[in-house]
Design goal:
- The complex is a heterodimer of chains A (385) and B (203).
- Chain A is mainly alpha-helical and 385 residues long.
- Chain A is 62% helix and 4% strand.
- Chain A has helices at 2-33, 40-59, 62-84, 101-106, 108-121, 129-142, 147-150, 153-163, 173-179, 182-197, 201-205, 220-244, 248-252, 255-263, 284-288, 313-317, 345-361, 365-384; strands at residues 269-273, 294-296, 302-304, 323-327.
- In chain A, strand 2 and strand 3 (302-304) form a beta hairpin.
- Chain A is globular.
- Chain B has one domain.
- The chains are: A mainly alpha (385), B mainly alpha (203).
- Chain A binds chain B through residues 179, 181-182, 184-186, 188-189, 192-193, 195-196, 219, 221-222, 225, and chain B through 21-22, 24-25, 28-29, 32, 178, 181-186, 188-190, 193, 196, 199-200, 203.
Chain lengths: 385, 203
């Protein structure tokens, strides 16, 4: 009886949370897919997102269920966005490539310039880069750096792969300290060169998702270097996490990560040590952080860097449970069950992240589900024949 | 002469944004890497950079006017990429030879005063960069075929385009050791980038 009561204490808030996530995500998903897809596909995606929320609140395991949601979103991105467009890429140039948020950071000055041109030509009322900038600002205020652990498709692949090995084959503490700011250098360089060349330099030179030579330069010498860099980035994205159990692409090569680390300060959510005195200084959190975002502070206690993207790995790893989500680092009551649990910073973060991440993934996830169903149907027909 | 000076100045004013776009990838990484929180130190880097540009423009003015006189309106194609590759090598070398060791740290390579002149080289490289405003000025001077007028023209052009570059001093407000390390990494990437473009132009 006591067990049933305890279960109810967790089940009902989780159910309410499920509904709170389901309503906005299904609304936006259906709107996004309207006229293109059967409503069942966006509804299925919204249901999956809301179920993630349910299990997070019911079990209290943020990172575990986040990873399932995040990995599924990234896998669906690969299914639809890449495979279905693979043949289309043969006939389009970089200017017509589909929208990608990673390029937004490194081409930000270009967007400013284009927006200036739009103003000058009187077309500012039409869809312009400024509109995209407002969307980005909204996401940054709502999620900040958490974007990289809840919504970004490249991050999802890196995150999923980093979870596969049981142990890290290569320990990378030293290079992490030296090169953790490399994405910031890459960002500054790309901002300037993209503007100078009026080209998406990140896409042309580094993006590992191209998987097609269409974007590459006509000059054979430059083409070889671009191909070399593309394969290097692909290795960092795919092999790096398998060898180090860390998100190597996000940590060392993603300019958007550096961009969000800078602007993410606007977002109120943080990971903080609940009681510094009680922290044993074992640095389990440091080893568990897939983003190299925790370092040893001068007082022998862990110090969280701006690169933290609120994935929750350190919260799950801390043997004493001394880490928690907070708003601007302020302490809040530690409520583990009942409806009060829905008013904690953790619940607000998970709600914001799932609604934002779920809606963003609605751009490709329902279509990917349809792709998968179509593929299964075709396979079924083939087997029957 | 005032008319030719103001013509160059107006061309610089109307195309200065393009000049800034071409110069920033070279100047900003260096300023972040070697700049100081003190304005005076950054001003010195900036003025050296401008001196390099002015030198490049003056040489270009003489060359363009001389080419106009002998009716041969073009530059050797290897000149710009060679300067670009050399400056890139200078930028990369400066990473090793201009760094001062911090307290408790030992540098493997000692600082060399030659590499304190990197802003001059970067300014020179961006000065002879074949960008649309530069080409417009160059073509005009080939037509004029007058070395004195050419120098005045490029002086006006240099003055106007330099105005657009003043905002690059702003990052100095945020200078600290971490920013300088980021600047060094950016300088490294920029050096490699210009080296690749230079070699591509030479091949």
């Amino acid at each position: 009886m006591q067990s049933f009561s305890a279960d109810k204490e967790r089940f009902l808030p989780a159910l309410l949370f499920f509904a709170a996530v389901l309503v906005p995500v299904s609304f936006f998903s259906v709107q996004i897919a309207a006229g293109r897809l059967n409503a069942a596909y966006p509804a299925a995606w919204a249901l999956f997102t809301a179920l993630t929320g349910f299990f997070i609140i019911y079990t209290g395991k943020v990172s575990f269920y986040r990873r399932i949601f995040f990995g599924a979103s990234a896998a669906l991105f690969l299914v639809h966005f890449k495979l279905s467009l693979f043949s289309a890429f043969a006939s389009v140039g970089p200017g017509e490539a589909p929208y990608c948020h990673i390029i937004m950071a490194s081409s930000f000055f270009n967007y400013f310039y284009q927006q200036y041109l739009a103003f000058m030509s009187g077309d500012f009322r039409l869809w312009g880069p400024l509109s995209a900038a407002f969307l980005w600002l909204f996401f940054t205020l709502v999620l900040g750096r958490a974007w990289c652990s809840w919504a970004c498709f490249a991050g999802g692949i890196d995150d999923l792969l980093s979870a596969l090995p049981a142990h890290a084959l290569i320990k990378t503490r030293l290079p992490a300290g030296m090169f953790r700011d490399f994405p910031a250098a890459l960002l500054i360089f790309m901002l300037l060169v993209s503007l100078a060349q009026m080209l998406p330099v990140y896409c042309l030179w580094l993006c590992p998702f191209k998987l097609t030579p269409v974007f590459l330069d006509q000059d054979a010498f430059i083409r070889k270097i671009q191909l070399g860099l593309m394969f290097f980035a692909l290795a960092v994205l795919l092999l790096g996490p398998l060898l180090t159990k860390k998100r190597t692409f996000c940590s060392f090569l993603c300019p958007f990560g550096a961009w969000q680390a800078f602007w993410g300060r606007l977002n109120p959510f943080r990971v903080t040590v609940v009681d510094t005195e009680e922290c044993a200084g074992c640095f389990t959190c440091l080893d568990s952080c897939p983003m190299y975002a925790i370092k040893a502070g001068p007082d022998g206690k862990p110090e969280r860097a701006a690169y933290c993207n609120l994935c929750g790995e350190c919260l799950a790893a801390c043997p004493n449970g001394r880490l928690s989500y907070s708003v601007f680092g302020l302490r809040s009551p530690d409520i583990k069950s009942g409806f009060g649990r829905l008013l904690t910073p953790e619940s607000f973060l998970v709600f914001s992240a799932l609604v934002t991440g779920g809606t963003f993934a609605a751009l490709f996830a329902p279509a990917a589900l349809k792709d998968a169903v179509d593929l299964l149907r075709r396979l079924g027909h083939l087997i029957i024949k | 002469m005032f008319a030719i000076l103001s013509e160059g100045f107006l061309l610089g004013l109307s195309t200065g944004f393009h000049c800034v776009m071409a110069c920033l990838p070279a100047l900003v990484p260096y300023l972040l890497s070697e700049g100081r929180i003190a304005w005076r130190a950054n001003c010195r880097i900036f003025l050296e950079f401008l001196a390099g540009r002015f030198l490049a423009y003056s040489i270009s003015a003489v060359v363009a006017s001389a080419l106009g006189k002998i009716s041969q309106p073009y530059l050797p194609t290897w000149a710009a990429p060679l300067a670009m590759a050399l400056t890139a090598l200078f930028m990369l070398a400066s990473l090793f030879f201009s760094r001062q060791s911090r307290p408790g740290e030992k540098c493997l390579v000692g600082s060399n005063p030659v590499f304190k002149r990197v802003p001059l080289a970067i300014g020179f490289m961006t000065g002879i960069n074949i960008c649309p405003p530069f080409v417009a000025a160059f073509v005009r001077l080939v037509g004029l075929a007058d070395i004195g007028a050419g120098l005045f023209y490029f002086t006006g052009f240099f003055t106007a385009t330099s105005l657009f570059m003043l905002p690059v001093m702003a990052p100095a407000l945020f200078m600290n050791e971490r920013v300088k390390d980021i600047g060094r990494m950016t300088l490294f990437i920029a050096g490699i980038w210009y080296l690749i473009l230079g070699i591509k132009g030479l091949l």
